[in-house]
Amino acid sequence: MPEFGIFLNSNNFISEVQKEVEYERTKGENQPKEILVEFAPKLLERLSILDNEGWVKVFALLVSGVEKKDIIAYFADSRLENFALSNGFAGEIKETDSDYLMITHSNVMGSKTDAVIDNFVSLNVEKDKENNLIHALEIKRSHKGGEFGFYNKRNNDYVRVLLPEDAVLINLSGEDFFEISPLLDYRNQGFSSDPDLERYESRIQKTGNVEILSEGGKKVIAFWMIIEPGQTKAVKIKYQTPEYSGIYIQKQPGLKSRFKLTFDGKTPFEDNLDSDKQFESQF
Questions:
Q1: Rounded to whole angstroms, what are the CA distances from 80 to 30, 34, 89, 93, 179?
Q2: Which residues are bridge partners to 156 per DSSP?
Q3: What local confidence, expressed as pLDDT, does residue 23 receive?
Q4: Residue 83: what are its φ and ψ, rounded to 5°?
């Protein structure tokens, strides 16, 4: 990229592009992402001259991206959308008859810090005397910081834990308080409320710093984790469900996370969660 004074390759692409977008802005303050605009045709040109062996490698990368949920797609055309749904790359919340868990993280005003966050999740499931399942879930995040300033900001993470609709929260600890101040005094400046948002927010039950609601056939428990560079934090959640024969663990698209699952002292899985997983209970 001679106009930007950068030679891009697979090792430096993310860091160099981020540095240009955040700091250099060679094309001016109003065109921070022009480097991507000019990069795209260069990439397409390289792809157009690949031989068969090169295309096999590209196809393998695409398939791997779909399998690991690093690539998902939505189509307005219902036939294509049904194809995406049937082949597992539409990104929808799964409907299951088993126990269920999905943890989603949303970075709010936390710059590019998700790139330097390590995620660890452990879930221990035990059966009580009434044959209910007691779940002990721990979500741990470590903020490593990095070479550039945009990696050394505070990470403001809005966490949503999706569970079966009949899950009951017993206790939760380790969450943070976080408040977003509106940029304007909307009501006094003539803005009207969106009725759909009002209906949605009216369903949220707030208990301290924790929000609980039902959405899409799931029980949702939401809270904040605020992590400074160099800091490690953990949230612990205990909840109960009726007895299920297995559990479906759904991965958040694009997220890298280490996951440990234990059933009554037995550990069927401890590895990187690189795709959705279905497990049978081992009681």
A1: 36, 31, 11, 18, 40
A2: 226
A3: 87
A4: -65, -45
Q: How many CA atoms lie within 13 A of 146 on its CB side?
A: 20
In this prediction, residue 180 carries a pLDDT of 82
Residue for token pair 């009554």: 264
> 247: which DSSP letter?
E
Tokens in use for 52? 């068969």
Strand residues in 12-154 grouped as ranges (E): 99-107, 117-127, 133-143
User: For residue 154, what are the contacts with CB-CB under 8 A and spacing of at least 6?
Assistant: 110, 113, 226, 227, 228, 229
- For residue 73, give every residue at least 6 positions away whose Cβ sits within 8 Å of its Cβ, in sequence order, or none: 84, 89, 90, 91
Counting residues of the chain whose pLDDT is more than 90, the rounded percentage is 81
Work out whether the CA dihedral 249, 253, 257, 258 comes out positive or negative.
positive
pLDDT tens-digit readout, 242-276: 999 899 999 999 999 999 999 999 999 999 999 99
User: Please, what is the Cα angle at 89 between 41 and 109, to 5 degrees?
Assistant: 70
- Of the candidates 141, 203, 199, 206, the one whose C-alpha atom is nearest the C-alpha of residue 169 is 206
DSSP code at position 90:
S
Residues contacting 14, CB < 8 A, separation 6+? 115
User: Are the C-beta atoms of 99 and 93 separated by less than 8 Å?
Assistant: no
Q: Say what the pLDDT of residue 281 is.
A: 83
Three-state secondary structure call for residue 67:
helix
Q: Is the pLDDT of residue 212 over 90?
A: yes
Tell whether the model's pLDDT for residue 147 goes beyond 90: no
Distance CA 36, CA 20 (A): 10
